[in-house]
């Protein structure tokens, strides 16, 4: 289909615009997409295309929130406020029951807690919007595997668990610290809790429109409600979680759950990752090279992820992005979102990248859309030519 591409690219990045146009032209249904790239702290790509979308449009970006949340955690580790080798229960005593007392903060960040959801009483959408509710209930639950011995995607809950550690130590929520230390100083259009004045720029998440063949494949691959994946994604309750409805829910937008509910655009996400690794507007990088490397390191080699079956999935709090796209430098770190969106920082090349989609891609619901590989490769090719 024909979708006009709007926006600008710096000299040398014309090929990125061409690749973005080709991605949009290959879509069967309008994705409502944005692509923004920084190089060494300067915005060099700012593109968008699709009906009802411009560069300022905001939408729910799901698990990209995990990247924002764990950038806060990385800062606190860098400053010595948190210790990756310390037990979670040392910060949060109520957590240390049912064999969870030996789990370290580092292991929690690696999705090793065995608390992917509440197997006894499924969370509702309203509950999943509130990190405090998630943390309080899961602290009392038995883990679904022995903590630290395996790993699996804590899709809706990881930010609530790490966030409660942060709250116990600092007295502040991750949302508050992100707002004060990262979003406001850099003027980022990415929010963990959408303010009322930004609501007029928000556009709703749109569902995948599968072909009959795609629909049959999705049905075949659907997780059993009582499986680890079913529990992690809320399929085991009387009203299974609908991801589209979740992203469009007013309570999710307002509270900004740190696992799944950040709202923003590609400018905001790319700007956040640029601030993490580069000098931006005269401000030094948020992370030292040593901290960036520590949080980018692959922590789940091999497989499988007990929830989604992937291999080489997680760094500390972030996804190990080179495991998704081997073209990326080994020190790259970031996180994808359910519609197929992706944000990452590549310190070696000074690149911060964000691709956002309003419409769910196929396959649907977990991980970055496949076109990110093409787009990221075009960005690295352009950067290498300068």
From TrEMBL:
Highest taxon in the source lineage: Bacteria
Residue ranges annotated for the Beta-lactamase-related domain, each copy included: 28-362
Species: Streptomyces incarnatus
Listed PANTHER family: BETA-LACTAMASE-RELATED (PTHR43319), BETA-LACTAMASE-RELATED DOMAIN-CONTAINING PROTEIN (PTHR43319:SF3)
Protein name as annotated: Beta-lactamase
InterPro entries in the cross-refs: Beta-lactam-related, Beta-lactam/transpept-like, Beta-lactamase/esterase
Database matches in SUPFAM superfamilies: beta-lactamase/transpeptidase-like
